[in-house]
């Protein structure tokens, strides 16, 4: 193997270096096609305004950014956009220039366009609207969007303002200040449930209102309501331009007026150059050298995408809207919004710790204010709303990483207080996690992913405690950080979901299901960044761990189970299009095979990032997809944020210079050697004080064929017999007597409903080290009925198979626990055998509806009786009464009395809703039926 060597050259003062014109390499169209979900419009680094064309108004997944490169119609230009998310929102304050008779029908005021007449650079966007031959140019400052509309024909020109664009308008106001100035309030609901946007619009020329729509107040200078649009008009000559400035504020009209001062005049080219200069300043923090123009475009667009968000969310004077919906004042920091932390804790925030320490402290101060005003740290915060999208409490990773790297500018004690608070809550499976050392299917959906990510976050909190000399907290959270062991199956070598004390079966590591977050077991079985050496040992040592990594990269590039649009960019089961895989190529470094890390990293850099609209292999996810590229291309990556060192690889560029905030710079080249693990970092010395702690040991696994049984059932307890022995107890439900603890010696049988509890105990030690207690509940069936299911259930929603329909165990409204059977695009049909002819007077079956998850009530349920299982008689038909538009989760017992009938067989047929209707976000998809318990009396 050819060896490469690296070295950081002498420190260089930035002031002595002329700033390069790096913004010229940015191609904002990268990621606007495929599943990238980016937008091409004008914005400045971390700006409040993202002024961009909207080609999608239907809320479609690939239209989350408002624009998709395959489209050929523009509906208008709105001032807020999300960069690469998987959920749609923003698109606030839409303006659209037209000519002739104005209309508020978006299909009428929309215009066709061609990519041949479209241009986008950093801080600038232009397009020709074909319908009325109007040239549109856009630029922006941090809080002001600047439009230039050139009309290429004589006649009446209109500028349409449509406040009903894209998401739901809760309430809107338009105040007419004078013929050139208006003020706007837009309060809306989408992903952010209650978003406030105030705006001030200034026209370069006097305009007249020539059409209006308002279902609230309509006065001479004031309009309001939930349906609100106005048209502003002026007769123009061919070639005449109308300029428009739009300032935004989250706080109020005064804030919007103040923010307008960012662009004081009507010099569009000046504003454009200022935007370009802002981008040059930020992009020059990393300078790379290459003769390949495409590589330069990909790199600087990636760096650009990491700086599109988080977004400044305060007025010029420091006022902002807090999580409590009140107006607050910043003191010594800037307040931001749009924190996609499940994505960005992995690469984007570590990148910021390298090149933007000031903003890192600002982000953390924002977290702490959100904790203060909202009661907890952000998970996925958007426009002062907590969406609770995704999992974990990864703001603690950002804070712990900053503390570990010695970044100042925020209150370490307050940060620890907030982090501990997040970890000690009792929601989202945390209560079970704290009690049992893992989350089971019975407790919470996405149980494996949550266990693993909580364990990593707990390790981050432990590092914070260590820095602050909090020994007891350090011990506690380090123990919790070992909880990954309770979902690792040492027999199969995979992270697996547990249910009722044992491993859930059947198990397919390729299956994407509700036990994992946007992935499968392959994509989560390597997520132990806080204890990589422990993970390697669990797999059987370095050679076996390397083999497991090889198997992942070399297996079939196909998943099973649920269709997951996020799982893209497959190399075997590695999925670069989604974040859980992003650290995996670097794990070869930990088994002494850096050449394999380089091979995989460079393959991804070459194949999954292109200088085209389809140039991203998956969602940009607020800069994370691009942050991976930026860091990997300069030869470093943060496998474990919170550990102040990089995992390294061969750089992708010949020469890289990183310019730091303190005025110094360092250079990386391919032909000089140096240790880059602490490149650009100042690790906290206190992390070297390794305080001993008690490692958690894996809980045993209670295995049985099913949760319910007829006469008796065999129970087996699995554990590592070389290291531990097991104590267990049995509590019979009839008399609640608890048999004294037994030492497990082999399988045993139960013949009554009972609860079995077991712990592992370490052998050969003077200290009694025990695992968390594992618990399993088993039910003896109240009858000997059997069920023959004629339909085919979705493997993800099997609920224990045919016995699950008649086991006396009722599913709750939290259907993701796995107690419901799911049937898609088909009717449900089953026959229950009562084992003898007997009198039947009542029949019932439970069904669940969660319309947002495509689960709808059957249109009707039919019950039939038979004595021979051949000839069936319809005895009851029950119609559904729940509207499909009801979004709350509902359970309905379709129950009916019948004339007493002699029968041995009861047939149940539930008619599927069919295709999802046009109003549904999954329009055209196939609805599910969810059924649980069939009861016959």
Q: Strand order across the biggest sheet? A: 7-8-9-10-18-14-13-12-16
The largest sheet, given as strand count, sense and whether it forms a barrel, is:
9 strands, antiparallel
User: Fraction of residues in helices?
Assistant: 10-25%
Please tell me how large the radius of gyration is.
30 Å
Strand content: 25-35%
What class would the helix/strand composition place it in? alpha+beta
Task: Count the beta strands.
Answer: 53
User: Helical stretch count?
Assistant: 17
Q: How far apart are the first and last residues' alpha carbons, in Å? A: 75 Å
Low-confidence stretches: 1-18
Mean pLDDT: 93
Quick structural overview:
The chain is built from 17 helices and 53 strands. It is globular.
Keywords:
937 residues, alpha+beta, nine-stranded antiparallel β-sheet, seven-stranded antiparallel β-sheet, 30% strand, globular
Protein described:
The chain is of the alpha+beta class and 937 residues long. Helix content is 19%, strand content 30%. The protein is built from 17 helices and 53 strands. The chain has a 9-stranded antiparallel beta sheet with strand order 7-8-9-10-18-14-13-12-16, covered by helices on one side. β50 and β51 form a beta hairpin. α4 (293-306) packs across α17, α7 packs across α8 (395-404) and α9 (412-423) packs antiparallel against α11 (447-467). The longest helix has 21 residues, at 447-467. The radius of gyration is 30 Å and the shape is globular. Residues 1-18 have low confidence and may be disordered.
What is this structure's SSE topology?
Blueprint: E1 42-43, E2 50-54, E3 73-74, E4 76-78, E5 94-99, H1 106-109, E6 111-112, E7 118-121, E8 124-129, E9 134-140, E10 144-151, E11 155-162, E12 168-178, E13 181-189, E14 195-203, E15 208-214, E16 222-225, E17 228-236, E18 240-249, H2 253-259, H3 268-283, E19 286-289, H4 293-306, E20 311-312, E21 319-321, E22 327-329, E23 336-337, E24 339-340, H5 341-344, H6 348-355, H7 357-374, E25 380-382, E26 385-386, H8 395-404, H9 412-423, H10 430-436, H11 447-467, H12 471-480, E27 488-489, E28 494-495, E29 498-499, E30 502-503, E31 511-512, H13 521-524, H14 532-538, H15 542-554, E32 560-561, E33 570-571, E34 574-575, H16 594-607, H17 624-633, E35 636-637, E36 647-648, E37 655-659, E38 665-669, E39 701-703, E40 708-709, E41 713-718, E42 724-732, E43 742-743, E44 748-750, E45 754-762, E46 774-780, E47 786-789, E48 821-824, E49 828-849, E50 860-866, E51 873-879, E52 890-910, E53 928-936
Parallel strand pairs: 31-32, 40-46
Antiparallel strand pairs: 1-2, 2-4, 3-6, 5-11, 7-8, 8-9, 9-10, 10-18, 11-17, 12-13, 12-16, 13-14, 14-18, 15-17, 19-37, 20-23, 21-22, 24-25, 25-26, 27-28, 29-30, 33-34, 35-36, 37-38, 39-41, 41-44, 42-43, 42-45, 45-46, 47-49, 48-53, 49-52, 49-53, 50-51, 50-52
Helix pairs in contact: 4-17, 7-8, 8-9, 8-11, 9-11, 11-12
């Amino acid at each position: 193997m050819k060896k490469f060597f690296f070295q950081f050259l002498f420190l260089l003062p930035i002031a002595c270096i002329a700033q390069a014109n790096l913004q010229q390499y940015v191609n904002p169209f990268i990621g606007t096609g495929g599943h990238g979900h980016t937008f091409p419009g004008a914005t400045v680094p971390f700006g409040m305004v993202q002024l961009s064309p909207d080609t999608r108004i239907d809320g479609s997944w690939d239209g989350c950014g408002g624009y998709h490169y395959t489209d050929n119609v523009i509906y208008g230009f709105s001032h807020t956009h999300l960069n690469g998310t998987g959920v749609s929102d923003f698109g606030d304050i839409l303006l659209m220039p037209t000519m002739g008779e104005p209309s508020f029908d978006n299909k009428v005021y929309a215009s066709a366009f061609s990519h041949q007449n479209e241009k986008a650079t950093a801080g600038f966007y232009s397009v020709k609207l074909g319908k009325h031959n109007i040239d549109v140019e856009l630029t922006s400052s941090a809080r002001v969007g600047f439009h230039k509309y050139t009309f290429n024909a004589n006649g009446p020109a209109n500028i349409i303002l449509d406040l009903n664009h894209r998401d739901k308008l809760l309430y809107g106001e338009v105040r007419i200040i004078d013929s050139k100035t208006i003020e706007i309030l837009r309060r809306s609901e989408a992903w952010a449930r209650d978003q406030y946007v105030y705006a001030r619009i200034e026209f370069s020329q006097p305009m007249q209102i020539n059409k209006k729509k308002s279902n609230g107040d309509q006065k001479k200078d004031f309009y309001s309501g939930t349906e609100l649009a106005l048209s502003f008009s002026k007769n123009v000559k061919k070639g005449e331009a109308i300029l428009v400035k739009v300032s935004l504020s989250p706080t109020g009209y005064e804030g919007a007026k103040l923010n307008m001062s960012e662009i004081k005049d009507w010099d569009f080219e000046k504003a454009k150059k200022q935007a370009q200069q802002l981008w040059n300043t930020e992009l020059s923090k990393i300078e790379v050298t290459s003769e390949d123009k495409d590589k330069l475009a990909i790199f600087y667009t990636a760096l650009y995408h990491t700086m599109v968000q988080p977004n400044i969310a305060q007025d010029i004077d420091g006022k902002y809207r807090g999580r409590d919906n009140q107006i607050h004042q910043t003191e010594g920091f800037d307040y931001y919004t749009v924190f996609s932390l499940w994505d960005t804790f992995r690469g984007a925030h570590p990148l910021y710790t390298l090149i933007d320490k000031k903003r890192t402290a600002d982000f953390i101060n924002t977290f702490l204010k959100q904790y203060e005003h909202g009661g907890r740290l952000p998970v996925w915060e958007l426009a002062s709303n907590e969406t609770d999208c995704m999992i974990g409490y990864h703001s603690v990773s950002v804070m712990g990483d900053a503390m570990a790297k010695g970044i100042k500018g925020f209150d370490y004690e307050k940060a620890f207080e907030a982090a501990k608070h997040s970890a000690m809550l009792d929601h989202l499976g945390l209560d079970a996690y704290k009690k049992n050392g893992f989350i089971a299917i019975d407790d919470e959906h996405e149980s494996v992913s949550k266990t693993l990510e909580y364990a990593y976050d707990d390790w981050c909190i432990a590092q914070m405690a260590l820095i602050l000399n909090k020994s007891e907290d350090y011990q506690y959270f380090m123990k919790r950080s070992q909880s990954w062991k309770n979902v690792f199956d040492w027999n199969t070598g995979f992270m697996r979901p547990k249910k009722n004390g044992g491993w859930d079966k059947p198990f397919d590591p390729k299956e994407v299901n509700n036990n994992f977050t946007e992935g499968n077991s392959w994509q989560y079985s390597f997520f132990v960044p806080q204890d990589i050496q422990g993970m390697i040992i669990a797999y059987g040592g370095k050679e076996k761990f390397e083999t497991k990594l090889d198997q992942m990269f070399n297996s079939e590039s196909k998943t099973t189970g649920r269709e997951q649009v996020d799982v893209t960019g497959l190399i075997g089961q590695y999925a670069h299009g989604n974040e859980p895989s992003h650290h995996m190529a670097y794990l070869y470094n930990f088994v002494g095979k850096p050449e394999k890390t380089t091979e995989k990293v460079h393959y991804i850099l070459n194949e999954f990032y292109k200088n085209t609209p389809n140039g991203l292999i998956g969602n940009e996810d607020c800069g994370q997809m691009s942050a991976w590229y930026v860091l990997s291309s300069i030869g470093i990556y943060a496998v474990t944020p919170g550990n102040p060192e990089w995992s390294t690889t061969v750089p992708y560029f010949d020469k890289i210079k990183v310019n730091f905030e303190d005025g110094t710079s360092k250079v990386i080249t391919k032909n000089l050697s140096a240790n880059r693990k602490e490149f650009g970092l100042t690790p906290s010395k206190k992390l070297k004080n390794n305080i001993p702690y008690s490692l958690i040991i894996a809980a045993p696994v209670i295995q049985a064929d099913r949760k319910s049984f007829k006469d008796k059932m065999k129970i087996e307890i699995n554990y590592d017999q070389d290291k531990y022995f097991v104590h267990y107890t049995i509590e019979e439900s009839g008399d609640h007597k608890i048999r004294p603890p037994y030492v497990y010696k082999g399988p045993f049988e139960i013949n009554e409903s009972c609860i079995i509890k077991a712990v592992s105990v370490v052998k050969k030690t003077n200290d009694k080290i025990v695992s968390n207690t594992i618990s399993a509940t088993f039910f003896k069936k109240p009858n000997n009925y059997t069920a023959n299911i004629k339909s085919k259930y979705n493997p993800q929603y099997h609920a224990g198979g045919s016995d699950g329909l008649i086991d006396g165990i009722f599913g709750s409204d939290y259907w993701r626990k796995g107690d419901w059977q799911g049937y898609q695009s088909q009717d449900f049909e089953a026959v229950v055998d009562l084992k003898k002819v007997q009198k039947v007077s009542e029949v019932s079956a439970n069904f669940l509806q969660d319309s947002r998850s495509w689960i709808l009530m059957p249109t009707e349920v039919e019950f039939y009786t038979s004595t021979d299982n051949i000839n069936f008689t319809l005895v009851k038909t029950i119609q559904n009464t729940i509207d499909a538009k009801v979004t709350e989760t509902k359970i309905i017992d379709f129950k009916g009395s019948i004339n007493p009938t002699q029968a041995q067989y009861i047939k149940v047929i539930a008619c599927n809703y069919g295709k999802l209707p046009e109003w549904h976000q999954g329009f055209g998809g196939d609805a599910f039926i969810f059924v649980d318990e069939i009861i016959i009396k």
